[in-house]
Amino acid sequence: MKAVTGRKKQVVVVGGGPGGYEAALVGAQLGAQVTVIEKEGLGGAAVLTDCVPSKTLIATSDFMSRFAAAGRLGVGFEGTEEDQHAEAHMREVNSRILDLAKAQSHDIKAQVESVGGRVIHGTGRILGPSTVEAITETGHEELRADVILVATGTRPRVMATAQPDGERILTWQQIYDLAELPEKLIVVGSGVTGAELAHAYLGLGSEVTLVSSRDRVLPGSDADAATVIENVFRRRGMKVLNRSRMTAVERRGDSVLVTLEDGRQVEGSHALLAVGSIPQTKDIGLDDIGVELSDSGHIVVDRVSRTSVPGVYAAGDCTGVMPLASVAAMQGRIAMAHSLGDAVSPLNLRGVCANIFTDPEIATVGYSQQDIDEGRIEARIVTLPLSTNPRAKMRNIKDGFVKLITRPGSNTLVGGVVVAPQASELIYPIGLAVQNRLTVDQIASTFSVYPSMTGSIAEAARRLHETDI
Ligand SMILES: Cc1cc2nc3c(=O)[nH]c(=O)nc-3n(C[C@H](O)[C@H](O)[C@H](O)COP(=O)(O)OP(=O)(O)OC[C@H]3O[C@@H](n4cnc5c(N)ncnc54)[C@H](O)[C@@H]3O)c2cc1C
Ligand SMILES: NC(=O)c1ccc[n+]([C@@H]2O[C@H](COP(=O)([O-])OP(=O)(O)OC[C@H]3O[C@@H](n4cnc5c(N)ncnc54)[C@H](O)[C@@H]3O)[C@@H](O)[C@H]2O)c1
């Protein structure tokens, strides 16, 4: 990275989530004077309400699930039957989550300030292609900018007929104020957010109903992987209602009533709404300066994060490009490198490793089976169930698989799916191989530990070996 010389360029970042704060760190490293305007706290929704809190909740839930599975590995507990179950104390669980998120936000703010960045606690509004206004509790400040980066993220979509009340009808951002575990939780929406949180509360001990508008849960994921998760959900006692679109949610005293499109009604103690997000791109001055938005309200950007207005960049969920923290951060870094004249490679989504934190987890990278089925790429696939893996047998892991996708001829790896406990860790070698265009033979000839889960990756690669004999 080379630093900018001459007058310091002024960069103003609106929104301090991964898209914004990672950009701020790179901008400062490249010698610019960076100001971040953030209205909630640095780290953004990713750290304060979405990614970090949900994964921390899931850590507790997964820990509890191990107690339930202990018997199958020969572990018994002393004492009476009543003593033998683990119980989640939600006040403590949630206060740990909120403290952890706050501490992480504080660390990020300190990091940005330590490289010379300025953080303004307030709301940003774009007044012109080189002017941003920061509205704070004490007044207004106009900031001149050579470069503006918009990274304002999204917020939960709310339907008029299903208004959250923050007590029993909740968005995923409101669940950490609960003092008690929801007794009968209805999760509406079976995308990644709905599936992860339905899994979390099932593990914590709630009775969970998952309302899924589609044929199966996780409609955007690998179909084989989603089938494994749906089967596991049902086996563990979750009620999954497929092809069931919610039309309304009402509060009835201490309970909630969810009405479905076909007239059925489901009663629970709490409803958790996970029906998607909307971009926070309105009323921040984008229209006034002519920044192009898509029909869904996302900011249109190219692969180096440029918007339609020179000098104005955008990163993260507000652009609608693969809504992941890692992608937001990469878009932000690329925006800074491009705007400040550093070497830059355009965003490449084929190398993105993503993970769904259910149990087992679903991790993916590169081309998918859907890409092959729909003719976007010609490829060979092998799917290896984990049930034959010796380490999996020792750990009593029965659900899951490794799927590898290769190009015929060159035999380079172009994609993969891992469904396993901690698939988020196991996907990395596959990601490395996809990113560096390794062949299946190179993977197959790399030693894996015996016994290990990664042994299944090497074994799947061996099965894809092509011979001329
Ligand atoms: C429940 C859930 C779990 C998730 N888990 C994961 C995960 O495990 N891994 C993963 O990679 N991704 C995960 N994601 C996705 C991830 O959270 C997002 O991709 C990420 O937050 C995007 O970062 P961002 O910087 O674009 O926006 P955000 O993190 O949303 O930050 C945007 C910030 O901008 C601020 N802002 C908005 N408007 C203004 C304004 N006018 N002035 C000042 N500030 C403003 C907001 O207050 C917010 O703090 C999850 C999402 C959800 C909903
Ligand atoms: N582990 C992770 O990395 C992680 C976790 C959560 C979210 N995310 C990111 O956030 C993105 C958004 O995920 P999401 O799950 O929040 O939103 P989503 O839009 O992907 O899913 C919402 C789901 O709700 C359903 N739905 C909408 N209206 C409904 C209704 N009335 N009744 C029943 N169902 C209804 C939709 O069909 C859809 O399946 C993901 O693509 C992912 O990139 C990532």
Automatic annotation (TrEMBL):
Example of a GO MF term: NAD(P)H dehydrogenase (quinone) activity
Keyword Cell inner membrane: no
Co-factor requirement: FAD
Domain FAD/NAD(P)-binding: 9-332
Keywords assigned: FAD, Flavoprotein, NAD, Nucleotide-binding
InterPro entries: FAD/NAD-bd_sf (IPR036188), FAD/NAD-binding_dom (IPR023753), FAD/NAD-linked_Rdtase_dimer_sf (IPR016156), Pyr_nuc-diS_OxRdtase (IPR001100), Pyr_nucl-diS_OxRdtase_dimer (IPR004099)
UniProt domain Pyridine nucleotide-disulphide oxidoreductase dimerisation: residue ranges: 355-460
Residues that coordinate or bind NAD(+): 189-196, 276
Cofactor note: Binds 1 FAD per subunit.
Residues reported in the UniProt entry to bind FAD: 55, 124, 317
Similarity comment: Belongs to the class-I pyridine nucleotide-disulfide oxidoreductase family.
NCBIfam families, per the entry: PRK07845.1 (NF005883)
Protein name (database record): NAD(P)H-quinone dehydrogenase
The species this protein was found in: Metallococcus carri
